[in-house]
UniProtKB/TrEMBL annotation, chains A, B:
Transferase in keyword set: yes
Enzyme class: transferase
Gene Ontology CC terms, in alphabetical order: cytoplasm
Source organism of this protein record: Komarekiella delphini-convector SJRDD-AB1
Name listed for the protein in its UniProt record: Phosphate acyltransferase
Family stated for the protein in its record: Belongs to the PlsX family.
Metabolic or biological pathway, per its Swiss-Prot or TrEMBL entry: Lipid metabolism; phospholipid metabolism
EC number, UniProt record: 2.3.1.274
GO MF term list: phosphate:acyl-[acyl carrier protein] acyltransferase activity
Gene it is expressed from: plsX
Gene Ontology biological process terms from the UniProt entry: fatty acid biosynthetic process; phospholipid biosynthetic process
Keywords: Acyltransferase, Cytoplasm, Lipid biosynthesis, Lipid metabolism, Phospholipid biosynthesis, Phospholipid metabolism, Transferase
Lineage: Bacteria, Bacillati, Cyanobacteriota, Cyanophyceae, Nostocales
Catalytic activity line of the entry: a fatty acyl-[ACP] + phosphate = an acyl phosphate + holo-[ACP]
Xref: Gene3D superfamilies: Isopropylmalate Dehydrogenase
């Protein structure tokens, strides 16, 4: 290989629309972003998904004999199938043949494979899944973590999420001095359960981040925060609720807007504007989720991801590699050890 | 008093728009629902909020010398101010001079006052705050509890929430055989933290309710569930997020829809339809929250409540009294003790 271009290992077998949409998104990313894509999976299926006139010499396919299904128990499946596409993709990073991994498959399996194959970053007890929500301020997303990797979190884990999230927000999302919040049930320092109160204290005292206090549910979309940390239980509920809300609202709009003659004409006139609204609310436009705290750049997409989401996630992965996010996170912990 | 009409004690001093909007909503409820309203608070302020031609003989004002502000620590404020309007309102229920209480003031203070003045229902360890979310199925709301009273919940508490919520859904919201779900991060029985797994098991074995399994964040608005139980931390985050989402979407619609000439004409034509959409998404249309598990019918409104929300909450309170929800809940626990 030896190219200086960013190389992304793509789990071509993961997701509801694999390999077709995965391959389509990857090829677009290769074209428009100048990244190298390594398509990991069953070569026959991948070749069948390539456009008719593809020059196979230009597309790198890395064979993997197995895949992990959405209903498999992640840890045991990852162990039982060493040749699963997600494992092979992780190994490419481990062996420095790729700079990052993307998968739209089983997110639990991606986390398990990352932990087993790549391990954790030094100083990190528990990796987290982070995802970016749009906010009411256009162009100012908020990174929420953890959204599902850790159902119970000690305050120390939340503090680590905050440090990692800040580095990501600064070096990938381009936020200068990211404002960090702790998801909680009130603004006051003393609010929440014991873990929340202790986490608040630790975040307050951490000099590596800019902690501005508790974030309530209503603050997530306000644009006041750049990073919000929470345990993976509440984060996961929130993420899935938010995804569903978007769909519910669009369905209500589709049902109610064209009612009556005025409604039909009005809706027709508004088509371009409605499309723009859909884009502002659409999760896919804002890229996938990422695993923070494992020793590699790993992005995961929703199982329902189609080519545009895949493309966006690969774009984010490239940014993370270009801006050396892992090194930034590690340097925080090395500094800490040296000064402590 | 001695009337057979339902009597609602209204905390006229609680809420951002007190007493004006509170009194307006209460008077409308008296007019349209045939309930008796007892306006609790500062007589001078209440009288000033009444319409000019009010026949004072028809409006019952119960004097209360104090009120609890939104920023006060609830338990100590409720103890320090025995003559606070929320305390006086609770006492009216305690002394059987009122059948229910409504307050749009400090919800923590309402809970504290209910606990101190009325106590818990027999068999209930922890009262919960329940609130009704609209779902994608028009006319089929879902009751979510707890949304803020208990930040840590033992599985047994969640089971009690389920029993109380089912009774409320059946006898106030008119659901036959309410379907109960446990808010969790996956559909499988084994998902979630230890508390969630144990709660799942207890709900599964409880013969008083119809438990249909875990509800993920995406299921809240799906209409598949009539009652969803969760701890007050995640419930509170979800509620506040949901309230904010509605506002965010409406703001995006207001910003994006009228863009351009077509947009302006289209938006004008769609005005009535947009109003209907706002109503479907509007929390106020679906009434306030309720305290379940205290020995009295207690409804609480959002601090920002205006007359229509107050009216709706009073309507729900009347339903709860008419349908003897407290007695229904109690009978579940009496039956249990007798059979156990």
């Amino acid at each position: 290989m030896g190219s200086t271009r960013v190389r992304i290992a793509i789990d071509a077998m993961g997701g509801d629309h694999a390999p077709g949409e995965i391959v389509a998104g990857a090829l677009r990313a290769r074209e428009e972003l100048g990244v190298e894509v390594l398509l990991v999976g069953d070569p026959q299926q991948i070749k069948a998904a390539l456009p008719p006139k593809t020059n196979f010499g230009q597309v790198e396919i890395v064979p993997a004999q197995e895949a992990i299904a959405m209903d498999e128990e992640p840890l045991s499946a990852v162990r039982r199938k060493p040749q699963a596409s997600i494992n092979v993709a992780m190994d490419l990073v481990k062996q420095q043949q790729a700079d990052a991994v993307f998968s739209a498959g089983h997110s639990g399996a991606a986390m398990a494979a990352a932990l087993l194959r790549l391990g954790r970053l030094p100083g990190i007890d528990r990796p987290a899944i982070g995802t970016v929500f749009p906010t009411i301020v256009a162009g100012k997303p908020v990174l929420v973590l953890d959204v599902g990797a850790n159902v119970d979190c000690r305050p120390k884990f939340l503090e680590q999420f905050a440090v990692m999230g800040s580095a990501y927000s600064q070096y990938v999302l381009g936020t200068s001095e990211p404002k960090v919040g702790l998801l909680n049930i009130g603004e006051e320092d003393s609010k929440g359960n014991d873990a929340a109160v202790r986490a608040h204290q630790m975040l307050r005292e951490n000099t590596q981040i800019t902690f501005i206090g508790n974030a309530e549910g209503r603050d997530v979309l306000s644009g006041r925060f750049d990073v919000i940390v929470c345990d993976g239980f509440v984060g996961n509920v929130l993420l899935k609720f938010a995804e569903a809300v978007g769909e519910v609202i669009l369905q209500i709009l589709r049902e109610e807007l064209p009612q009556g003659l005025h409604g039909q004409i009005g809706s027709a006139l508004l088509k371009p504007n409605l499309k723009r609204i859909k884009q502002r609310m659409d999760h896919a436009e804002h890229g996938g989720a990422l695993l923070l705290g494992v020793a590699g750049v790993c992005f995961i997409g929703h199982g329902s991801s189609q080519a545009p989401s895949i493309f966006n996630a690969i774009r984010m992965a490239k940014e993370a590699v270009d801006n050396e996010v892992l090194q930034r996170i590690q340097s925080q912990y090395i500094l800490e050890r040296e000064s402590g």
